[in-house]
Amino acid sequence: MRINVFFTFSLSFVLTVSAFAQSPFKSQSPETAKGDRLYSRELYKEALAEYHKLPLTSEVRKRMGASYIKLWDMPAAIEALRAGLKQEPRDAEAKVYLAEALSWNKNFGEAAALYKEVLASGYSGVDARLGYARTLSWMKDFDGAIEQYRMAAKEYPSSLDAHMGLGQLLSWKKQFDNSLSAYRRVVSLTSVPAYKSVALARIGQVHVWKGDMDAARTAWGEALRLDDGNVDALLGLGELDEWSGNYKEAKRRYERVLKVQPEHKAAKAKLLQLLWVK
Question: Which pTM was predicted?
Answer without folding.
Answer: 0.85
